[in-house]
Write a structure and sequence with these properties.
Structural class of chain A: mainly alpha
Shape of chain B: elongated
Helix content of chain B: 10-25%
Order of helices and strands of chain A: HEHEHHH
Largest sheet of chain B: 2 strands, parallel
Radius of gyration of chain B: 11 Å
Number of domains of chain B: 1
Order of helices and strands of chain B: EHE
Oligomer: heterotrimer
Helix content of chain A: 55-70%
Strand content of chain A: 5-15%
Number of helices of chain B: 1
Number of helices of chain A: 5
Strand order of the largest sheet of chain A: 1-2
Number of strands of chain B: 2
Chains: A mainly alpha (about 100), B alpha+beta (about 45), C alpha/beta (about 475)
């Protein structure tokens, strides 16, 4: 994930605490999703950003994961998400997340 | 799997995927509170 | 109804491995960990390799982007040693030539270059027909001790060529953050590549259009030219016009993130259509800030640092002659405030609705030009294949609307899309880099119309969460042909 964003996320979590915080992602590439999820859970895997060595332990979900998307207002889903769900290979994009969450 | 109701959420959207504001609207509809939101642009 | 035409386009590249260290990401990382410089240095590629690289050849017009689909990946290994640095659309100049252009474009006496570098640059650029010997001879040179002293004092940053210090870029002010040597180098690099493109454009049309025949210049632009009181004052357009000898012109910069240059094109057309001007040039220089943006992934995967070129583009917009590709001002697609951030609304606003206004459906467009970034650059860092991601949005919407069968998405992309080939140079990779190819194909009778759509990530500036985009059709059929609605 973008390294600059890490610094602000770290500040937000330092103030608000990490309890019950989850991330919901929207990227359309499995690698991007994987890198973001790893950073938020265990620290920056590239050993370069403000979250290097800082394990926030925040689980990441993708906005198009069925169990997440099922919780949204259906009209909102249609308007905001339906096209993206058809355009990206959702299974491929979300695949890394379950493993990272359960690790 | 997680129940979003009452959860505090970090929204990380992507310009050509699902944007931050779109994710934000959706998770709020499920009863979550948004702590942080951004949209990434990879290029 | 007729609309203004695009009659010439120049696409240029400048090899700049020595400037990669000054790209935003490398610069910040080197400051944290100086050893990064060596790691980058070990993966910089030679000029010959940059010239022989398929995507660069596609950019300068010696290859069609579609041909990259059959070039085996990795493209950085499938080099064509017979490829020329002179492209059908423009040049891929060497770093020495770029440094010479920086000096030529320097009006503030801040660029110091040694005599040997300047002489070599002048000879090469003159051979390309980009400069005259006289204007290069008029430039002053600096000797090594002077260059060294400037760098040691902190007043200047070194300019490298083939691993040695060949010159220096001075700061404009001791305290002004808008006039540091790094900022001025970034701005001057944009000016120099814009001037390169515009001079190349002028050579292309010299038998019928002289520098004095261009009335106005619009520049697509993402850098900030200014000083402490007006950091983004701008009008690099006029500086570029001056650098190309457009004595009758002035102009202004169009600022809209990566959509800037495409916005500039339709605004140029609007000015010509309204009769305000007869000929408007659109120009854009390259982005030094984006050099080496994804170097980490390239170095980690033992790839060359592929973001080692600055891009430049120049486009001539004027009243149409019969058969000229026209900028369909009746098909401008806008991403308005009300459009919002849902992908469906955005694609409808930029693609479906403008086409519908002209009576077309998705299949009536021969080729879509979107964010044409080279996937070989973006995939290693997890950024995916950006053009393909955009094509999938268009095709998926077509499927949702029943214009394309659901299992026809890939086929649609193969027929109406193309592989990405542009360097990650922002406002040039966004759609406009295909204007030259479309112009060529339309002149050859192999293309009727192409849709150009560019996006701007406004949210990056923290003034809005919105993104932006603009689009329009370029069409050479005079709008007379209404294709039957075949998918």
């Amino acid at each position: 994930m973008d390294l600059e964003g890490q610094g602000r996320i770290r500040q937000v979590i330092e103030q608000a605490g990490a309890d019950g915080v989850v991330a919901v992602l929207g990227a359309n590439s499995p690698t991007a999703v994987e890198m973001t999820a790893l950073t938020l859970k265990s620290g920056d895997p590239s050993y370069a950003g403000p979250l290097t060595g800082i394990a926030l332990g925040i689980p990441s979900y993708h906005v198009l994961e069925a169990e997440i998307a099922d919780q949204f207002d259906p009209a909102l889903y249609e308007r905001e998400l339906a096209l993206s769900a058809l355009a990206m290979d959702v299974a491929e994009v979300v695949a890394p997340l379950k493993t990272i969450r359960e690790a | 799997m997680i129940d979003l109701k009452g959860k505090r959420v970090l929204v990380i959207g992507e310009r050509d995927g699902v944007n931050g504001p779109a994710i934000e609207a959706c998770v709020k509809s499920a009863g979550a509170q948004v702590l942080y939101a951004e949209t990434l642009c990879f290029v | 109804m007729t609309f203004p035409a695009i009659t010439a386009v120049a696409n240029v590249l400048a090899h700049a491995p020595g400037l990669v260290r000054y790209g935003s990401k490398p610069l910040r990382d080197i400051a944290h960990a100086p050893v990064t410089l060596e790691a980058i240095g070990a993966r910089l590629r030679s000029y010959d390799d940059a010239v022989a690289y398929g995507p660069n050849q596609a950019f300068i017009g010696n290859l069609e982007p579609e041909a990259l689909a059959s070039l085996p990946r990795p493209w950085f290994e499938a080099l064509d040693r017979s490829a020329s640095s002179t492209g059908a659309f423009g040049d891929l100049i060497s770093e020495g030539e770029l440094l010479g252009l920086l000096k030529l474009c320097d009006r503030a006496r801040l660029v110091h270059l040694d005599a040997a570098t300047l002489a070599d640059a002048g000879a090469r650029l003159a051979k390309r027909g980009i400069v005259t010997p006289a204007e290069m001879d008029a430039l002053t040179t600096a000797d090594a001790p002077a260059i060294d002293a400037l760098c040691r004092s902190g007043e200047a940053i070194p300019l490298f060529l083939d691993g040695r210090v060949a010159g220096a870029m001075g700061r404009g002010h001791e305290e002004d953050e808008a006039l540091t040597a790094n900022v001025l180098l970034e701005n001057l690099a944009g000016k120099a590549t814009g001037v390169l493109a515009l001079r190349r454009l002028l050579r292309m049309v010299e038998d019928r259009v002289g520098p004095g025949d261009i009335d106005f210049v619009l520049a697509g632009s993402e850098e900030a030219v200014g000083d402490r009181y007006q950091r983004g004052g701008g009008n690099l357009a006029k500086a570029i016009a001056e650098g190309a000898g457009l004595a009758s012109a002035t102009g202004f910069d169009v600022k809209a993130f990566c959509a800037s240059t495409l916005y500039a094109v339709f605004n140029a057309a609007a000015l010509v259509q309204a009769g305000v001007f007869s000929r408007v040039a659109v120009v854009a220089g390259g982005s030094l800030a984006k050099l080496g943006m994804k170097y980490r992934a390239h170095v980690a995967k033992s790839m060359p640092v592929l973001e080692d070129v600055l891009a430049g583009i120049a486009i001539l917009v004027e009243r149409p002659r019969p058969g000229d590709p026209m900028i369909r001002l009746d098909t401008v697609g806008l991403h308005t405030v009300a459009t919002g951030s849902a992908q469906q609304a955005i694609v409808e606003a930029l693609v479906i609705e403008p086409l519908a206004r002209a009576g077309y459906r998705l299949g009536d467009v021969d080729r879509y030009a979107t964010e044409m970034h080279n996937p070989e650059v973006t995939e290693p860092s997890g950024s995916g294949d950006v053009p393909r991601g955009n094509y999938r949005l268009i095709a998926a919407l077509g499927a949702m609307r029943g214009e394309i069968p659901r299992d026809g998405i890939n086929d649609f992309i193969a027929r109406h899309g193309m592989p990405g080939y542009a360097p990650t140079q922002g406002h040039i990779a966004s759609a406009v880099c295909y204007l030259a190819h479309a112009l060529r194909a339309m002149r050859a009778g192999t293309m009727r119309r192409a849709l150009f759509m560019a996006k701007g990530s406004l949210f990056l500036g923290r003034m809005t969460e919105a993104s932006d985009g603009v689009s329009f059709l370029v069409d050479c059929t005079g709008g007379l042909e209404r294709a039957p609605h075949t998918p």
